[in-house]
Amino acid sequence: AAGVIQSPRHLIKEKRETATLKCYPIPRHDTVYWYQQGPGQDPQFLISFYEKMQSDKGSIPDRFSAQQFSDYHSELNMSSLELGDSALYFCASSLRWGQGTDTQYFGPGTRLTVL
Amino acid sequence: KNEVEQSPQNLTAQEGEFITINCSYSVGISALHWLQQHPGGGIVSLFMLSSGKKKHGRLIATINIQEKHSSLHITASHPRDSAVYICAVREGSDKLIFGTGTRLQVFP
């Protein structure tokens, strides 16, 4: 069965550069979530989208933005990168936003290293 | 105080042992997830619970909504079960609040 796809899997950037992370949800899933997991940290919720609209927002810095496109894939754009942005970024997808009964399926993550 | 707490933080077991990981939460939830994260980083969803008990192979998850507590049990543990097990709760909206994780090592 198709899973959540994230690209790239690994990314190395310099400070103050920009990065774009992509997430392709499971086919027919309409909701995408982004999580950030710093070294030795719990994953933290960043932002979510349902039907191409932002549905919830967590601890996402103003330097980051995200959107969900018409084909339901999502991109997380990160500008003015800082060393502290080095983390594993997970995307998850689910179907039927808000009913509380849908499972989130996680992608393999993108490991971002900022030098 | 974290909204989701797990115990123990680290767990070492011999192959074949019965393992229990506990999760307590302090917020009202609509569902609780047990996740597994391997050293490579990928997260796999093991269970989603809103009441009662679920079983999948050697894994059993239970939840007590009144006590705000859930347990994950692994029967006949195996070295390939070595991973970080994360409890995550869904509070209201769909975002998950993650626990601190339990690092399990199972030795042959």
Counting DSSP E segments of at least 2 residues, the number of strands of chain B comes to 11
Question: What share of residues are in beta strands of chain B?
Answer: over 45%
- Provide the gyration radius of chain A in Å: 13 Å
What composes the largest sheet of chain A?
7 strands, mixed
Structural account:
The complex is a heterodimer of chains A (115) and B (108). By secondary structure, chain A is an all-beta fold. Chain A contains no helices and eleven strands. Chain A has strands spanning 5-7, 10-13, 19-24, 31-37, 44-50, 53-57, 64-68, 74-78, 87-94, 105-106, 110-114. In chain A, strands 2, 4, 5, 6, 9, 10 and 11 form a seven-stranded mixed beta sheet that branches. Chain A has a four-stranded antiparallel beta sheet with strand order 1-3-8-7, with no helix packed on it. In chain A, strand 7 and strand 8 (74-78) form a beta hairpin. Chain A starts with a strand and ends with a strand. The model of chain A has no long low-confidence stretch (mean pLDDT 90). Chain B is mainly β and 108 residues long. Helices cover 0% and strands 59% of the residues of chain B. Chain B has no helices and eleven strands. Chain B has strands at 4-7, 10-14, 19-25, 31-37, 43-49, 52-56, 59-64, 69-74, 83-90, 96-98, 102-107. In chain B, strands 2, 4, 5, 9, 10 and 11 form a six-stranded mixed beta sheet that branches. The model of chain B has no long low-confidence stretch (mean pLDDT 91). Classes of the chains: A mainly beta (115), B mainly beta (108). Chain A binds chain B through residues 31, 33, 35, 37, 42-45, 48, 55-56, 58, 88, 90, 94, 97-98, 100-106, 108-109, 111, and chain B through 30-31, 33, 35, 40-45, 48, 50, 86, 88, 90, 93-101.
